[in-house]
Amino acid sequence: MAPSFGSKIVLIIGAERGIGRGASIKLAKLGATLALTDINEASLDKTCNLCTSTNHHYTSAFDVGSTEKCNEYVSVIISKYNGIDHIFNCIGINGVYQSTVDVTDAHWDKMFNTNAKGFLNITRACIPYLKSGAPLENPISAFGISPVASFAAYCATNAAVIGFSMNMALELGPRGIRTNIIVSKAMRAPTNVQRGDFVVDRGAEDITDVVAFLFSDESRYMNGSAVKLQAAFCENNIKGLDPAF
């Protein structure tokens, strides 16, 4: 039996496409009221239009690397809904395949500002308003636990999110707030369209049942868990990638 999210307020960060869009559509079908955000307003509106339900969903386009914008976003959500039940932090931009000696300060800072600081900004702003039993889910790339050569910045940001998520599990656990990680290899998505040599033919719709499960009471004893979705992987020819993962 599918879980029900009627009357639940779910924040989905990174909702314009891929896993974020898939999670939005799935949770809307299960009755959730969604607060969607990403940086691209047109794509975000498309996601909202795909979320068929009787609920009125809220969208806001901004850069999660901005502390001020994240604080403003959460303030609006609280004023509209008076609380937050679930957070899906699907935050991240793709890395660049390059030698570490070629990594510029600008690229490194851009990656960390979005892929790592974005998690901090949203989570920090939400913590005072999280209800007891409000689960957080942080999807990351498997490169955070199984790094590859010549993706230094991308691997480092995903590893940072793992550490941050484990800390949240310990820090918020006593309040009944669970934090779990979804770990996947590259999937079929617009951001991976040029990476066909290592993207398995699996899309966001293939993992949304896991997203719903981790938000449901059925996963109430899962906190600080890293759920590996290893089917999202196939043979590739990227130098340095470990095919054993």
From TrEMBL:
Molecular function per GO: oxidoreductase activity
Could you tell me which Gene3D superfamilies the record lists for this protein? NAD(P)-binding Rossmann-like Domain
The record lists the membrane-crossing segments as: none
Q: Which Pfam families match?
A: adh_short_C2
Q: Does the keyword Oxidoreductase apply?
A: yes
Tagged with keyword Chloroplast: no
Print the keywords alphabetically. Answer: Oxidoreductase
Which InterPro entries does the record match to this protein? NAD(P)-bd_dom_sf, SDR_DHRS6-like, SDR_fam
- PANTHER family attached to this UniProt entry: DIHYDROANTICAPSIN 7-DEHYDROGENASE
Q: Which family does it belong to?
A: Belongs to the short-chain dehydrogenases/reductases (SDR) family.
Q: What is the official name of this protein in its record?
A: NAD(P)-binding protein
Name the species this protein comes from: Hyaloscypha bicolor E
